[in-house]
Structure formats: structure tokens, C-alpha cells
Automatic annotation (TrEMBL):
This protein's UniProt keywords: ATP-binding, Nucleotide-binding, Transport
Designated name of the protein: NitT/TauT family transport system ATP-binding protein
Gene Ontology molecular functions: ATP binding
SMART domains from the UniProt entry: AAA (SM00382)
Stretches assigned to the ABC transporter domain: 10-241
Originating organism: Paenibacillus harenae
Length: 264
């Protein structure tokens, strides 16, 4: 993998979440994520993947247990730094702003020099291949391009930890594949840690260095799978026996919530 897994970045320590409605969304979640990893939360709809991700962003708090990022509570870290960025399934762009101004917006809200913001935004747009569209408005973009803008907006903050909640779920397969390749490329170049929510087994195996498989509600971790496939990953890898083995392994854990196993 691209990042060397040396330092613990995210920790879930016996985390449970009960909503005020009485829904137990997560039950005794316990695992750690090392710096530089690409980790997917894989699980069926409603198993608490988004809730777990939102906790890492400080947007939700555990009922019991503790979530830390770099040894701090996410809320504290978000207050003090731009280390955490979030990409949602919906690109959430402001229609009246240009592509460039959408990417600039979070920086603008934090204050500082417009010139520097613009340079940072242009660099981020270049990373996602959209520099030539900086003056376009969201209505002029395809779904994949809008998602690229959303990713650029997150990257502009130069986050240490990029949180992505099913960012490609609404896209067609071809666009999804090219964005997966671009994301892996950026992850390797920028040496970030990525936490990615999906219910797509193929996507999880293709992208991840580690898959946290979650079982149906209340969400529990049914297994941690270390995906020992080399980076950079090529699309052709999807037809290899080793890839299929990981898909079968993850699917098996999804279905049965079985114990931790690893491929040799
Ligand atoms: N604010 C809330 N109040 C009450 N219940 C909630 C709230 N947010 C989520 N839930 C419930 O908690 C459970 C987990 O939801 P969550 O969105 O985390 O699951 P998920 O695995 O991300 O689902 P999906 O893949 O469908 O997006 C669900 O049963 C959901 O209805």
C-alpha cells in the first residue's frame, strides 16, 4: 500500500449509539485505523456505516465508548484544524457559484487571502481534472463532474483524513470506475488516510487496504479484512482470482457476520 501503516490515527473504543428514537444503531464497535490506510466500512443498508463515519467527523457522538482521531475527540480536532474533510453522496454544490467559487467557499468562510484560496482551489481542481471547467456553473456539469468538484473542495483543505460517505453511489459504472482510479491516485500522491463508506463489495475490495465489515442493525464489526493486493490498482485486477477471493471473503462475512479471517 501507499501509506506506511505505523501510527494509529482513528480509534473506536467500545462505541455504541442509541438514538433518542430508541434505535440502537451501533453496538460495541471496537477497532483502530492506522495513518495512511484506505479503509472501507462495508455493510448492508441501515447497519450504521454513516453514523460511524459521522462520529469520526464530530457530527455525531457515541452514547457510550469513545472515538478519537489523533488522540483527540473529533470535535476538538475539527475546531483546531482542517485535518478532517467530508465528502457526501450528494455533491452539495451551490448552483449560483462557479466551480472555482464552490471550491473556494470553505476557505472563504475561514478567512484569509482570496489569492491564496484561488491558487489552492485551482491546484485541487487540477488534481481532479477540472481546472478547465473552473468558470462553469454546477448545472453545466455531469454527475461525475459535480462529484469531482465536491472532492476538490474537500482536498483543498489538505486534510489528513478524508471521510467519504458513498460518494459514487449515484454515478454510472464507467464514471464510478474512473473516479475510483482518480481517488486512489490522489490518495497515493497526497498520503492521506481515507475512510470510505460503501455497500458495494467490489468497490470495497478494489479501493481498500482494509475493509471493516459491519453486520446488520445493531451495527457491529463482523470482521476486519486486510486486502493484500498491490497498489497502484489497475481495472484489470478485477478479473484476477485473488480479487475474486477477496470479494467472496467479504461477501461471506456480509452474509454470515463470521469471525475474522485473512487470506494468505
Ligand atoms: N438521527 C437519527 N435519528 C434516529 N435514527 C437514526 C438517525 N440516524 C440514523 N438512524 C438510524 O440508525 C440506523 C443506522 O443508520 P445509518 O444511516 O448510520 O446506516 P447506514 O449503514 O449508513 O445506511 P445506508 O447504507 O442505508 O445509508 C438506521 O436504522 C437509521 O434509521
Amino acid at each position: 500500500m501507499a501509506g506506511t501503516a505505523e501510527k494509529r490515527l482513528v480509534a473506536f473504543e467500545h462505541v455504541s449509539k442509541m438514538f433518542s428514537t430508541g434505535t440502537l444503531a451501533l453496538s460495541d464497535i471496537h477497532f483502530t485505523i492506522q495513518e495512511g490506510e484506505f479503509v472501507s466500512f462495508l455493510g448492508p443498508s441501515g447497519c450504521g456505516k454513516s453514523t460511524a463515519l459521522r462520529m469520526v467527523a464530530g457530527l455525531a457522538v457515541p452514547t457510550t465508548g469513545l472515538v478519537t482521531v489523533n488522540g483527540k475527540t473529533p470535535k476538538q480536532l475539527v475546531r483546531e484544524s482542517n485535518d478532517i474533510a467530508f465528502v457526501f453522496q450528494d455533491a452539495n454544490l451551490l448552483p449560483w457559484r462557479t466551480v472555482l467559487d464552490n471550491v473556494v467557499l470553505p476557505m472563504e468562510l475561514r478567512g484569509g487571502s482570496r489569492k491564496e484560496h484561488k491558487e489552492t482551489a485551482l491546484h485541487a481542481l487540477e488534481m481532479v481534472g477540472l481546472k478547465d471547467h473552473m468558470k462553469a456553473h454546477p448545472r453545466q456539469l455531469s454527475g461525475g463532474m459535480k462529484m469531482r468538484v465536491s472532492i476538490a473542495r474537500a482536498l483543498a483543505a489538505k486534510p489528513k483524513l478524508l471521510l467519504m460517505d458513498e460518494p459514487f453511489a449515484a454515478l454510472d459504472e464507467i464514471t464510478r470506475q474512473s473516479l475510483q482510479m482518480e481517488l486512489l491516485d490522489i490518495w497515493q500522491k497526497e498520503k492521506m488516510t481515507v475512510l470510505f463508506v460503501t455497500h458495494n463489495v467490489y468497490e470495497a475490495v478494489f479501493l481498500s487496504s482494509k475493509i471493516v465489515v459491519m453486520s446488520a442493525r445493531p451495527g457491529r464489526v463482523s470482521s476486519n479484512i486486510d486486502v493484500d493486493l498491490p497498489y497502484p490498482r489497475e481495472l484489470g485486477m478485477r478479473t484476477t482470482p485473488k480479487f475474486s477471493e477477496y470479494v467472496d471473503l467479504a461477501s461471506g462475512h456480509l452474509e454470515h457476520g463470521a469471525d475474522r479471517r485473512e487470506l494468505g
